[in-house]
Amino acid sequence: MRDPEHDLSQTGAVRGDERASPPAANPRRGQPNRLSSATLVGRERELSDLVAGLATTPAVAVIEGDSGIGKTRLIDELRTHPAYAGRRFAVGRCRSIGEPFPLGPVVESLRRHGEALQIAALSPVAGAVRPLLPELSSVLPPLPPGLDDHVAERHRVFRGLVEVIEALGEMVLVLEDLHWADEQTVEFIDYLVSDPPPRLGLVLTYRGAEVAPPTRTVLGRVPAEVGQVQIGLSSLTPPQTRLLASAILDTDTLSEEFATYLWERTAGLPFAIEELLALLQARGSLAQHGSQWIRRALDELDVPDRIRDTVLERAGRLSPAARTVAEAAAVLQTAQPPHVLQASADCGGDVLLDALEEALRSGLLFEDGANLGFRHPLAAQAVYDAIPGPRRRQIHSRAAAALQELGDPAIGQIAHHLRETGRSAAWAEAAERAADQAMTLRNDGQAVRLLADVLREADLDAEIRARLAVKLGQAAVEAIHAAPDVTGLLASVLEEPLPAPARGELRLSLSVLLSQVGGDPVLRRQLYADAVDDLGHRPDLQAWAMVGLGIPTVPGVEPAELLHWLHRSLEIVPRIEDPVSRVFMWGKAAMVLVALGDPAWRHLVDRMEEQTGGSPQRRGEVNAYDSVGLEACYSGHHVVAERLLSAGLRGAAACESHRLELRVRRSVALLDYSRGRWEGLDEQVRVLVDELDGYASGRLVVEAVAGALALARGDLDTAMAGLTAVVRRAEELNDLDVLPVPAAALIRLQVARGEVTEAAGVGEDVLRGAESMGIWVPALRAVPPYVEALCTAGRVDEARAMMARVTAAVEGLEGLLAPAVFAHSGGHLAAAAADWADAARLFSAAADHYRRFDFPYEAAQAAEQAACCHHELGDAAAKDLMSTALAAYESLGAEWDMSRASRLGRRIGVPVPGRHRGGRYGYGSQLSPRERQVAELAAAGLTDQQIARELHLSVKTVEKHVSAAKRKLETPTRVALAVRLSEVEPPA
């Protein structure tokens, strides 16, 4: 087997302009020290799945596996498969060294296909890719006029790339090593798979343990009509290892003992098997004398387990000149032209050719078109680590100089090499240039990494540190997963003497970052306050800091002070020249006013929609729509929330901003839960929880929805654990507009379990927080279950006093839910006094109010409670009300409530549905059919990756199903799971 991972260079496509050809003999057979298998071993099923999955286009295939597992070999087999003869392949790889240029693998995969585009009828939008693809300038339309919005510019580039891909006709586009992908590449893939060209087969590969959640979940965003296939590659088994070694050695007499030896020392990793056999051959220990020879010689072999040792021994057999070239290639990491290798190795041209040929014959280096480099990063790292420090620094220095001479210098790589030389000033300069370029191209995550490393390690003067820190803060605010890593760094820079403008901008950025990761709210507020006076040079940023001071995050700040800062920010808005920034400020101010119950928020929303025409297109505009839409949802304004969030979701798509899309999808998830749109919501929320990792406030919302849904579905243990954690975290963050959502669900669950004291404590915490910050309107949804908890505990007088307190607090505020909440709570108080008639009237009124404002779940609960009261009165109205509640629960898929209400329904003669007719079926503590299916395969010994292939699921989904099955059946291991499954009947 050839090296399965890295037959492609780290800078792009290998043979990207070739078409697939019929299978040929192993091209390396006969070369010294080069052992590989011409036959594919242990991957026949995966190849069949890949061939079939891409047969009908458009289609998307994902190949997941560890380094050296055989992802690239599988793609090479696809290229030479008879079914793909004549099919165009365009191949690109992500880089391990970050570059400011985004979309690297996409660009590299396309740049060799200019000839095929000569007769293509490309529209003007395709000209947007000219700066990325100068090699295709002769066949591309002219560059269109620039746009004043980087996000819109990027969207146009995405459109241009898709048009170029479509113009290439029937094609397989392969993007490898997406665990190294920059954010913009991930966003482009997301854009591409949402509506792929009709003749495109897209293949994506990555290492599962290293890939970011947005990349892992790409298949979840592929339209249903697009073909999908997910392939997980696992290590070879001992029998497969024997087959591979036999194929490599071209023998049928390999002993089982020797095969076991190989498997134990390589863990079945194909690359390691190949490397180990190559080392044995280099030692002269491999010769075919039959199985008896192999068994006798085995006792004399003392081969190290680690690949590093095998690589170093092979490298040690090179001549000094060839080893010097190999060391230079290891330092460079990516395949480079021979003259770059020569300059980095500092060897004369007369010896270079011989040295290169020797390194190529050894199999350590390979040819990537006109470039040369290591065929596998593990091998490169092994050689790199063995280079003495002083010589390694010299090679890095020469590499930086050589790369600088290239016509299109790779600034990120140059910065990397300068860093390793210890030349702080030169490194900082190169890193800043690379970061500027990355930010211009909206590759904010890479900019964060470049700048943060410099600030942490380089010895710089104060002016440079201040400038770099400000840029780092700006980039980190936009890079959703970067904030946790840089807040401490920015805080340390703030302790240094800084110019006022830099200090103000840095304080603002740090406060925003802290809000994203759930940092200390007191510190956040202080940073906003300290920033105000330093930001006079930037009215937009000064207004932003004032809005931050207007957001209720710290207990004890009076609403009047919050309003003071909001009004000050609005006074500054006319001085802001940028219309997008004005919309952003209106949105942030309106968000706070909604929570405070101040109807002035509606006027600001009108101005937002007037300025944007109801269709936000810029990031600041989408942010504003999302902020107000989410707060409107908390406060019960579902119609406005629907309008704003729908427009915001369209705007996020237009911006091509994955970060913004995540924000809006989080808000839409809460709106869908509140409005009873639960079909498919469970899976959407699970995906969002993964994707929002590192964004504390955003993740909190979807975790609240996940916990509330788990309760309604009847998964009580999951609900209790999830809701308890979310409530605790919301209290820690003082995120008191989120808190009532999980708190209301948790109180209901605790009351049902008889934990009324704990339930009342949760309710009191909600109201105490609302009182301390003056944000009563979002807290209203937790009031009815809190009243029920107090009444159930016999603390009716406390409940009445609490209701009087809430009524007084919300008087004069715009609280849309107040009539429903007060009627619902009054029903509990009347029921506690056994005043069934008044309780029935109040519960019915609450149900009507909830329905009017589109709260179907709460309406069903109130209708059920009204039915109970009518039943106490012996009133026939109980049947109609209970039927209404049961129908609503059934439609929602609220199995917990359905089970409870059905018991009373049967007693009073209400027909109870006998089968599930709508919504997602909840199985509570029983295994769902899918969980049982997965559990049975796991019990049979299949790995998670094998189960994923069998059932066409993601590996992460399989892991969750296995975990759920083990939890529900109380089995710690898969062996115990197999025993327990035989004792449990499947659900009807």
Automatic annotation (TrEMBL):
Keyword presence, Hydrolase: no
Signal peptide (residue range): none
Coiled coil: none
One of the GO BP terms on file: regulation of DNA-templated transcription
Keyword Plastid on entry: no
A single cellular component GO annotation: cytoplasm
PROSITE patterns: HTH_LUXR_2 (PS50043)
InterPro entries, A to Z: AAA_16 (IPR041664), P-loop_NTPase (IPR027417), Sig_transdc_resp-reg_C-effctor (IPR016032), Tscrpt_reg_LuxR_C (IPR000792), WH-like_DNA-bd_sf (IPR036388)
Domain (HTH luxR-type) ranges: 920-985
Residue ranges, annotated region (Disordered): 1-35
Keywords annotated in UniProt: ATP-binding, DNA-binding, Nucleotide-binding
GO molecular function, one term: DNA binding
CDD domains attached to this UniProt entry: LuxR_C_like
Database matches in SMART domains: HTH_LUXR
Gene3D superfamilies from the UniProt entry: Winged helix-like DNA-binding domain superfamily/Winged helix DNA-binding domain (1.10.10.10)
Protein name: DNA-binding CsgD family transcriptional regulator
Organism: Nocardioides albus
